[in-house]
Write a structure and sequence with these properties.
Largest interface: A-B, 101 and 108 residues
Structural class of chain B: mainly alpha
Number of strands of chain B: 0
Radius of gyration of chain A: 24 Å
Distance between the termini of chain B: 36 Å
Largest sheet of chain A: none
Oligomer: heterotrimer
Number of strands of chain A: 0
Strand content of chain A: under 5%
Chains: A mainly alpha (292), B mainly alpha (287), C alpha+beta (359)
CATH topology of the domain at 59-108 and 148-284 in chain A: MetI-like fold
Order of helices and strands of chain B: HHHHHHHHHHHHHH
CATH class of chain B: Mainly Alpha
Strand content of chain B: under 5%
Number of helices of chain A: 13
Helix content of chain A: over 70%
CATH architecture of the domain at 59-108 and 148-284 in chain A: Orthogonal Bundle
CATH superfamily of the domain at 59-108 and 148-284 in chain A: MetI-like
Radius of gyration of chain B: 23 Å
Number of domains of chain B: 1
CATH architecture of chain B: Orthogonal Bundle
CATH class of the domain at 59-108 and 148-284 in chain A: Mainly Alpha
Shape of chain B: globular
CATH topology of chain B: MetI-like fold
Shape of chain A: flat
CATH superfamily of chain B: MetI-like
């Protein structure tokens, strides 16, 4: 079988990733299908999927995941974008310092962060509670409350990952050519108009990337739940990821967990397909295949 | 001497507030690490500890709590994390990602392959936790460095490949053609020319991968059950072990351990900020 | 030192034919130029000779060997790119040495050869520096050094002077010409700048949209262009090209269009036909009075020793070359004089020059 030289070299270079792909992607998916469609005894069945349809915990998990998704993305974008705009417009000697400081939360392990936030949010000894009382507001049991637990996690998550959005948006802002702003000024645009007609279109691609990457990161969310609330109180902080974990490694229901994993995979695939369909993400990602 | 405008002052104040918001939890961790229980379990909370005491960091018998719950107790776990993270990072970046990215950009140019890589970076950890457990069990690699490192490849390799694709795309083709005319084989061109021209990408990939492996929880949780020297439990598990074993939470020691554990990644991050920022934005910013 | 023969060469990118059955014979030691506008296929032709692209059909011979399918390394060609393509991460010495190292030359032999070439090109003081630390002109010489150090059979250059500023470009032209003569290597040079081509080449091939329109030495190209395209492309400012009809007038012939009638003394055509008339600016005269074609001055350009005056005869405009300063200004009435024996005619539909039409 004579392959063209291009193909031959390409395959040789890609050999490691092909091997990796077979072992760590194809095989696991096969295993997942195997597990999901059988019972513990090894009998082929659709029972796992039937169970999914009537599972209240799953429903709660999906609702929580959705709420968590919207809340986290919203918070991270709001803060990240806002801070990027702020820093961009800041002219002063402390610019580099601010940038470094804002960058730090990204580096910290979610596990450590989780526990720190437990401390911070503690309703007897925590400093946040203290601030609330000083301001005359009632003391709130953040982590013990059915309604406040998930938002608390959202805030903790936002703390850690809004710098991510900030970094990407900021990098996008600084590549907008100064000349465009000068032309806008000559044309008589106010600062807000300049933002709307110059800045915004230029960073649309960047915002899309930030959105996509952040969305993925949020969907993965597991660490904070495990460390801060373990899914509680009740099931109010159960996310799909956490639920699957518990089923697999706490209750040893690997078959059902596999089914849940496949569900999760399907959701991700649908989400990515939808996003890719509506936007030419690849062009923005440095894989400029459109230019051929 | 220009008087700063009102708007500029507002921007500065907001930035300062934001910085405080990001710093406060870290500050609190630091401060807690110097406290003992009496200063932790009090109201109102102590913002400035009376003394800076490193007992939670180093002392082998810190007040009323066992060795395992001080910062220095985390060393076996740190050894595991270091070995696993370095191994996974180097293998995924240099052995897998770099050649694959180069191949996809210069030889196997196919939109679907690129999309496949993208899709693989987006798969959450939980999806493969059951199969990876089975896989490691089958290979008899549970609770071992290689067992964990291999699984971490699934988290780092696709992202690193995707990242490197953008960087390789920026290498001018004419330089590679000049090398072809000079007589280099495609592999030589890759190794001696192209790879040397994407160093910022490599640095970004290595650093991001390392940080990720260092902080990873789920796979470490399910694939390991004891620390060095018997096993391969990583640093996040040291922290979580506080949760399970001791309900009375050695918060001081925990905070100290947290600081200890955060330091490598924070220092790395600060030094390599330039590379990381560029890496995170990939080719998203049309330069 | 080899000759290069291109035989019936066609290159397609997808459905797009970039080179259409092109044939050429380039002699050994020639300084041969491929001249044409962008998109004409000249760079593609060069890259096919280099081995950087694959042939769709046809053959290429270097020396006696048929090189279809051979890699650039096997063809032993050297190439200088428009942006020089130096290895940014290596210093000048290593840049030049790489082709030798790849071929397994010993360290000492390599060092000797590199120094030799560096001296020839006057860059021996730059050997330790990196490409970004040296100027554009110096980078170009490093690229030349890298190409020549291997004693290649053919030397290929892809618009290497385009990135230089005007003054450097003139210096580089002379330098390259001298170098080529000294080294005595078959050289193929691609450019879109016809002045570059005519000043440096022994022979030029003019390309237009994938086809070769003419292969000739510079002077013949200038005075005897084969078709309208070549006539308009070579020479600056370009030849005046006027469309009209050649028809009988009494016992002789005349050229006629809406704006003018020109009696052609000894010229004859085989039949009445639509033609394009071509005449170079330096073959025309212009004055306030006297005989010729009546018109109005629309533009005057002073270039120092010569000037160019454009006169509109109705809708037809002629650009005339004058020495010194013209006495005419925009808006003046003027007379354009031409001698019919200096005029060329091209067939309107095919574009080809009509033989025998100029005496």
């Amino acid at each position: 079988m004579r392959l063209s030289k291009t193909l031959r070299v390409g395959l040789v270079l890609a050999l490691p990733i092909i091997v990796y792909f077979l072992i760590f992607f194809i095989y696991p998916i096969a295993l997942l299908f195997d597990e999901a469609f059988t019972t513990a005894g090894g009998v082929l069945t659709l029972a796992n999927f039937q169970r999914m349809l009537n599972d209240p915990v799953l429903q709660t998990s999906l609702q929580n995941t959705f709420f968590y998704f919207i809340g986290s993305l919203g918070l991270e974008f709001f803060v990240g974008f806002g801070v990027a705009v702020l820093l961009y417009n800041y002219v002063g000697r402390l610019k580099a310092l601010f940038r470094t400081l804002i960058f730090i939360p990204l580096m910290v392990s979610p596990v450590v962060i989780g526990l720190v936030w437990v401390l911070l949010l503690n309703n007897q000894y925590g400093p946040i509670d203290y601030f609330l009382r000083v301001l005359g507001l009632p003391s709130m049991n953040f982590l013990g409350s059915l309604s406040l637990a998930l938002p608390s996690i959202i805030v903790a998550n936002g703390w850690e990952y809004s710098p991510f959005v900030f970094l990407i948006i900021y990098a996008g802002l600084i590549t907008v050519p100064q000349q465009l702003y000068e032309a806008a000024a000559v044309d008589g645009m106010s600062r807000f108009q300049a933002f709307r007609y110059v800045t915004f279109p230029s960073i649309r691609g960047v915002m899309l990337v930030a959105f996509l990457l952040d969305a993925i990161g949020v969907l993965k969310g597991f660490d904070l739940i495990y460390v801060i609330t373990s899914g509680g109180p009740g099931y109010s902080t159960y996310l799909l990821s956490f639920y699957a974990y518990k089923e697999a490694f706490v209750y040893f229901q690997t078959n059902y967990a596999a089914a849940l994993s496949l569900l999760f995979l399907a959701i991700i695939a649908a989400f990515v397909t939808m996003v890719l369909k509506f936007t030419p993400v690849e062009e923005y990602l440095g894989i400029r295949r459109a230019k051929q | 001497m220009k008087r700063p405008s009102v708007l500029a002052s507002i921007v500065f104040i907001l930035l300062a507030l934001v910085s405080l918001f990001y710093l406060f939890p870290l500050y609190w961790t630091l401060v807690t690490s110097f406290k003992f229980d009496d200063q932790i379990f009090t109201y109102p909370p102590v913002f400035l500890p009376s003394s800076i005491d490193f007992a939670n960091f180093f002392q082998s018998s810190a007040v009323a709590h066992a060795t395992s719950q001080t910062a220095i107790g985390s060393i076996p776990w740190m050894i595991d994390s270091t070995v696993v993270a370095i191994t996974a990072t180097l293998v995924s970046t240099f052995l897998i990602a770099a050649p694959a990215a180069y191949s996809l950009v210069r030889f196997l140019r196919n939109v679907w392959l690129g999309r496949l890589i993208l899709f693989m970076t987006m798969i959450p950890e939980v999806v493969f936790m059951v199969p990876f457990f089975t896989l490691d069990a089958q290979l008899n690699l549970l609770n071992s460095w290689w067992g964990l490192a291999l699984v971490y490849l699934s988290l780092t390799a696709p992202f690193a490949t995707w990242l490197m694709m953008g960087f390789f795309n920026d290498v001018p083709k004419t330089v590679e053609e000049a090398a072809e005319i000079d007589g280099l084989s495609p592999y030589q061109i890759f190794y001696r020319i192209s790879l040397r021209l994407v160093t910022p990408g490599l640095v970004a990939a290595v650093l991001l991968s390392f940080i990720f492996c260092w902080n990873e929880l789920l796979y470490a949780l399910i694939l390991t059950y004891s620390p060095y020297p018997t096993g391969a439990e990583t640093v996040p598990l040291f922290i979580t072990s506080f949760l399970i074993t001791d309900k009375s939470f050695a918060w001081g020691g925990l905070a100290a351990a947290g600081i200890f554990i955060m330091l490598p990644t924070i220092i790395m991050g600060i030094f390599a900020q330039k590379y990381l920022a560029r890496g995170l934005t990939l080719g998203a910013v049309k330069g | 030192m080899s000759e290069v023969v291109v035989e019936d060469l066609t290159k397609k990118f997808g459905g797009n034919t970039v080179l259409d059955h092109v044939s050429l014979k380039i002699s050994a030691k020639e300084y041969f130029v491929l001249l044409g506008p962008s998109g004409s296929g000249k760079t593609t032709l060069l890259r096919l000779i280099a081995g950087l692209e694959e042939i769709t059909s046809g053959s290429i011979f270097i020396g006696d060997r048929k090189v279809n399918g051979m890699s650039p390394k096997e063809r032993n060609v050297a190439m200088v790119f428009q942006n020089y393509a130096l290895y940014p991460h290596m210093n000048v010495f290593d840049n030049i040495a790489l082709p030798l190292r790849v071929r397994g030359m010993t360290k000492d032999a390599t060092a000797r050869k590199v120094k030799e070439v560096a001296e020839t090109l006057h860059i021996h003081s730059l050997l330790e520096k990196k490409p970004k630390q040296i100027s554009g002109g110096e980078q170009q010489r490093v690229a030349l050094a890298r190409a020549l150090v291997r004693d290649p059979t053919v030397f290929l250059l892809d618009e290497p002077l385009s990135n230089l500023d005007a003054k450097l470009r003139v210096e580089a032209r002379a330098f390259l010409k001298k170098l080529q003569k000294e080294v005595g290597i078959t050289t193929i040079f691609v450019t879109h700048d016809q002045a570059e081509a005519t000043t440096m080449a022994t022979r030029i091939a003019v390309l237009n949209r994938g086809n070769i329109t003419q292969v000739d030495d510079p002077y013949m190209l200038y005075s005897r262009p084969n078709d309208v395209f070549t006539a308009g492309f070579v020479g600056s400012p370009s030849m005046n090209l006027v469309r009209g009809v050649a028809r009988r007038s009494g016992e002789g012939w005349e050229f006629h269009n809406d704006d003018l009638d020109l009696k052609l003394g000894g010229t004859a055509f085989d039949r009445e036909r639509e033609v394009t008339l071509g005449v170079r600016p330096e073959q025309l005269t212009v004055s306030k009075g006297g005989g010729g074609l009546a018109g109005v001055v629309s533009n005057v350009e002073l270039l120092g020793s010569v000037s160019y005056v454009t006169v509109n005869v109705g809708k037809t405009s002629f650009t005339v070359q004058l020495t010194g300063r013209p006495e005419l200004e925009i808006g003046d009435r003027a007379m354009v004089g031409l001698r019919p024996e200096t005029v060329l005619f091209f067939d309107e539909s095919s574009g080809e020059r009509i033989e025998g039409s100029a005496t």
